[in-house]
Write a structure and sequence with these properties.
By secondary structure, the chain is of the alpha+beta class. The protein is built from 2 helices and 4 strands; from the N terminus they run βααβββ.
Length: 100
């Protein structure tokens, strides 16, 4: 069990690069897809506030209906998803701490 991240869009703005770095820290970890949205939101709180708000106000991770992936969205000013940033999937392999 390992998370794989497929980036769908990237912007070169400093703030989004900070979010992408935080997102990348989850790659190849053994966190479940169910707990990923909450963990991601908590990690966004570590990014310093900009003049208009916090990263947690502008990005959202949601588990899809089939529970096989998490979509990470950039939110518009109204808080609605407007741009898909990444898709997070579980590779389906069983976690082996001994790497056999």
């Amino acid at each position: 069990m390992s998370l794989q991240i497929e980036f769908k869009s990237k912007r070169s703005k400093d703030y989004e690069l900070s979010v992408i770095i935080k997102l990348g820290e989850f790659e190849n970890t053994n966190i479940s897809l169910y707990s990923f949205p909450d963990r991601f939101r908590e990690s966004l709180k570590e990014i310093p506030r900009v003049s208009v708000g916090y990263a947690a106000d502008f990005y959202m991770a949601e588990l899809t209906g089939n529970n096989k992936e998490v979509k990470v969205w950039h939110l518009n000013i109204k808080g609605d998803p407007d741009r898909l940033l990444a898709i997070v999937k579980d590779d389906g392999k069983e976690f082996n701490p001994f790497n056999f």
